[in-house]
Design a protein that fits this description.
about 675 residues; Thrombin, subunit H; 24 helices; aminopeptidase
Amino acid sequence: MSMTTARGDEGMWVFNNLPLETLKARYGFTPPPGWAEHLRSSAVRFNNGGSGSFVSADGLVMTNHHVGADTLAKLSTSDKDFYKTGFYAKTRDEEAKAPDLELNVLVAIEDVTTRVNAGVAPGMDDAASAAARRKASAEIEKESTQKSGLRSDVVTLYQGGRYHLYTYKKYTDVRLVFAPEFDIAFFGGDPDNFEYPRYDLDVCFFRAYENDKPARIEHHLKWSPDGAKVGELVFVAGHPGRTNRLNTMASVEYLRDIGFPALLDWLFAKEAFLLEYGKKGDEAFRQAKEELFSIQNSRKARVGGLDGLKNSTFMAGKREAEQELRARVAADPAKKDAYGAAWDRVAEAQQVAARIAQSNQFLERGRGLDSTLYHIARDLVRLAAEKAKPNADRLKEYRESALESLELELFSEAPIYLEFEQAKFAFGLAYWKKVAPDSPIVARILSGRTPEQAAAELVGKSKLADVATRRKLAEGGLAAIEASDDPMIKLALAVDPEARAIRKVREDQVEGVEAANYALIAKALFEELGDKVYPDATFTLRLAFGAVKGFTVDGKAIPPFTTIGGAFEHEKAHGAQPPYVLPKSWHEAKASGALKLETPLNFVSTADIIGGNSGSPVVNKDNEVVGLIFDGNIQSLVLDFGYEDAVARAVSVDSRGIVETLRSVYHADDLLKELTAR
């Protein structure tokens, strides 16, 4: 287990516990007063799982193209495919409103560990303790939201060792400003994904609005006129999704032996289905493309992560660290009595996780009921049931503090393509039946029908694609839901008791046990190391740091920077065949002589990042933008489980490449002026 003090540039640090001593000792840098607050307040979280930053006083937000791709797909039509052609609003009136995008900006962090644990009475088992903590968290969130009007989330840190209240200002009127063509945003496609050198302009700009006007932003990042230099200290402020560095060996071995293999089997199957569906024609390909990219990205990431877990040297290091800590605990009678059984209890929880894994994934998480319409139906069914309960007794996603965000997505005007939804639903049922041929739930859902027949009836006859229908059902509450003849509502009602039962087992016997016992392990570590231990990622704002630095693989030195000219060379080296085809706009800019080919386009650094950091700003010591995180190299995929800086690198779009292409390729003069205003 790698619950250790940070090494080198390791760490995804919470903003109320930054590694100031390390920065001073390693880089001679002490952030001046207000530096961290400014960076924290400039950082933005996207509700679809990415990061971003404010880069102008008028609400301009920078992120990745692949973070904005979901919105691009939802704004596109068969006649206007912004995903393919790109988008640029030359005036504010032309900025296109995203149908269901929410941005969060962290306002404050408060340690509420004592309050969360206050309801845990002596002698409570792990399940009861977990229930008490959930109830306390709900009460804290409700109180905070009512008092501040802000989104309020109680966040579990150190797997239960600490609980912090994060409050966020929300922006729900978000409009698209600029996106390049997909072919340059994801140049090299799946073959180059998680590789380096890279040549991608993976950038997208949105604007946050309030009261139908561009939001006035006090804290926004200024643009560096010079970009980054080799060896320079840089910082990344973003929202890494999830790491498992603090997990016990039993938990990591569960992922290696059960969790990841099962996930990968499904990802490969889903990828094959989407590729085949896209062959039906240009419109079918357009509808499936965004989901295909997401699946391919997850598949490649999990292959890399699993390879890391199969690395005997890496696993031996984690095992040794865990054994050393357990030995120190065992050597102290008081610590042994307090913490000694924690590792075994976590191991027992993994056995339960393994037993319910299939039902949890395919039923509760909906992998076997793969349609937007089903997930809408399930939300409507649960929303009606949960709103009838006291807030503290509700499932987390239906608490009052979360309802506004839930309803933004539930009543989204984003298009739903019924033929695609029907095909996905049939695929999900067929795959579920394949891996669980004796499942009584699958048999009940099919009721003698083939997956295709069931999908035709359940998806084809549902009316939930209509937003007005969804609103009417939500407003009608439980009575309207129970009286509904919509086949998807009926399905959600029919399977919900079993889905809830699986969820309860997981919450009580897996998550509850893990939270209680990881908290004990965390206490053992805190007694030795104090706040020198950083928590695993939780899709909350973190600060990472590192140096702009190349790496060596198989004796070959990989330089830290690539250039715009290198993109044309990369295209030529691959015969200008997909996915190595640069957009026509780029070739025109090159032919005109306007495009400066020597301009840096991408670079790498040792900053500690993972999925969720996509779209994070990379800044220098003056808090000026020098880059934009969009990927890690293939060697970085093990970072979910432990830090490595010999060859693992964070990959960024260079700020100079963004400026040069906005100027010389896209002639986005007004955007460029706003972006670089000092």
